[in-house]
């Protein structure tokens, strides 16, 4: 069979669709690696290339997160109109399989590593089932190497995405990862990770370990980092800020080539941290922990969620001052978005605070719920303000381009900061154009 694995683009009016740096989606190249050799596979990332709906294809497989689901449905409908069979999977389809089924012949629910072969066999026999669900969680020791050869040669900041674990031991109210995997944490054999590193052909020194928490198991993390230290690598990953309190682990990460960590700080308000279930974070330790990471040569890409119940309109200026003072290398600064399947969605739904279920608006840049301590307008304006300020040239010069203190992480975080410049400019234009018509509800 000829199989097309498709990743929909962001909506054209989204804050994120013009970002200059992009990452491939590991799940598609993993599925390609799981596909038997007799099939012909192509990966199509619509953010980089247009979809040819006239192509000769026997099976179309679409994966989408919530804000991309409406576009995914459009793609599915168009291929089905042309008589092609379509399977939809991914986290949104997992939580709303009946919705997804109205646009597809089949829906893959949850992980699909161990059902993909069955889907292909049924598609080849013309007997696709309506739904496929794995009985057990994926055995990570059986993962293939991703088919990186199918990725476009240009357009991605990182080509080398590697996964060593799945899941996270934390249980944050807003997190889709915990909602999907529970509090399970599975680890891939170190020997398999090492073989994959040795197999890399393109820019071997640059790797993004996509684990949701690369140090969720300390003994495994130490073994992994010891192995990585035997290679001359530059890599980034995700982990908790508490890494900075473990001197042995921090030193090992630096020796292993870690140039940066995506860290979920989430909030500068202790009450928010307690409410969201991330009590392991303590605001009073943030500055010391950031300094320790920087002293080890590890850049900090922080995630801060705006709009939680104890945020008021002062939180935006508070963050900007904090970020510049601590020279945070980069940041993901979304509006709180209650994705289907998460506890925060269930809570806000019960409280009657959800303003829309137009999934295209669940882009982490649009307010889709009613905040408690500010208006919808204040939260939306605050989102634009905090992103424009953080990614302004004065802020970037202060945070990462300091001529008196060169950081090795600049080689990664410099392009990431500059890559958000088009989105920041777009946000400013979009805010002026849509100031009076962008809201879904008014606070009473």
3D architecture notes:
The chain is 36% helix and 14% strand. The protein has 444 residues and is of the alpha/beta class. The protein folds into two domains: 132 residues, Cobalamin-binding domain (Rossmann fold), CATH 3.40.50.280; 278 residues, pyruvate-formate lyase- activating enzyme (Alpha-Beta Horseshoe). The strands form three sheets. The chain has a six-stranded parallel beta sheet with strand order 2-1-3-4-5-6, sandwiched between helices. Strand 5, helix 5 and strand 6 form a beta-alpha-beta unit. Helix 14 packs antiparallel against helix 17. The longest helix has 15 residues. The N and C termini lie far apart (56 Å).
Compact description:
With 444 residues, the protein is α/β, with parallel strands linked by helices. The chain has helices at 26-34, 69-81, 91-95, 97-101, 116-124, 176-181, 190-199, 218-228, 247-255, 270-276, 286-295, 315-325, 343-350, 376-390, 393-399, 410-419, 421-434, and strands at 2-7, 40-45, 59-63, 85-89, 106-109, 131-133, 161-162, 165-167, 185-187, 206-209, 234-238, 258-266, 299-304, 330-332. A 6-stranded parallel β-sheet has the order 2-1-3-4-5-6, sandwiched between helices. A 6-stranded parallel β-sheet has the order 7-10-11-12-13-14, sandwiched between helices. Strands 8-9 form a two-stranded antiparallel sheet.
Low confidence ranges: 436-444
Question: What Rg is obtained from the alpha carbons, in whole angstroms?
Answer: 22 Å
How many distinct folded domains?
2
Main sheet properties: 6 strands, parallel
Distance between the termini: 56 Å
Total number of beta strands: 14
Helix proportion: 25-40%
Taken as a percent bin, the fraction of beta residues is: 5-15%
């Amino acid at each position: 069979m000829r199989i097309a694995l498709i990743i929909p683009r962001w909506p054209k009016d989204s804050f994120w669709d013009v970002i200059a740096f992009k990452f491939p989606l590991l799940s598609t190249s993993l599925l390609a690696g799981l596909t038997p050799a007799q099939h012909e596979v192509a990966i199509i990332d619509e953010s980089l290339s247009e979809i040819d709906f006239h192509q000769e294809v026997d099976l179309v497989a679409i994966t989408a997160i919530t804000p991309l689901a409406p576009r995914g449905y459009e793609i599915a409908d168009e291929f089905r109109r042309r008589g092609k069979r379509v399977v939809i999977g991914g986290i949104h389809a997992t939580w709303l399989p009946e919705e997804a089924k109205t646009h597809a012949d089949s829906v893959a629910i949850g992980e699909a590593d161990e059902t993909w072969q069955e889907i292909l066999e049924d598609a080849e026999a013309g007997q696709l089932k309506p739904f496929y669900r794995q009985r057990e969680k994926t055995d990570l020791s059986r993962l293939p190497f991703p088919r990186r050869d199918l990725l476009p040669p240009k357009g991605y900041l990182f080509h080398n995405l590697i996964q060593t674990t799945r899941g996270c031991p934390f249980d944050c109210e807003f997190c889709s990862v915990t909602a999907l995997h529970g509090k399970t944490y599975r680890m891939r054999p170190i020997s398999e990770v090492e073989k994959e590193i040795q197999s890399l052909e393109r820019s071997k020194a640059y790797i993004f370990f996509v684990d949701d928490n690369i140090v969720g198991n300390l003994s495994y993390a130490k073994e992994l980092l010891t192995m990585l230290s035997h290679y001359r690598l530059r890599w980034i990953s995700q982990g908790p800020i508490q890494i900075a309190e473990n001197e042995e682990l921090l030193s090992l990460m630096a020796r292993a080539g870690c140039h940066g960590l995506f860290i979920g700080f989430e909030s500068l308000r202790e009450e928010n941290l307690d409410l969201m279930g991330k009590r392991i974070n303590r605001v009073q330790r943030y500055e010391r922990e950031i300094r320790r990471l920087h002293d080890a040569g590890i850049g900090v890409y922080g995630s801060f969620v705006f709009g939680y119940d104890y945020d008021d309109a002062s939180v935006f200026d508070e963050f900007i001052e904090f970020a510049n003072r601590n020279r945070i290398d980069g940041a993901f600064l979304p509006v709180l978005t209650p994705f289907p399947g998460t506890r925060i969605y269930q809570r806000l739904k019960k409280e009657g605070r959800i303003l829309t279920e137009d999934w295209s608006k669940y882009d982490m840049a649009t307010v889709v719920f009613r905040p408690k301590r500010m208006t919808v307008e204040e939260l939306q304006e605050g989102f634009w303000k905090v992103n424009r300020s953080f990614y302004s040239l004065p802020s970037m010069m202060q945070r990462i381009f300091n001529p008196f203190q060169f950081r090795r992480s600049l080689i990664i975080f410099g392009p990431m900061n500059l890559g958000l410049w088009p989105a920041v400019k777009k946000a400013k234009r979009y805010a002026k154009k849509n100031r009076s018509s962008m809201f879904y509800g008014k606070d009473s």
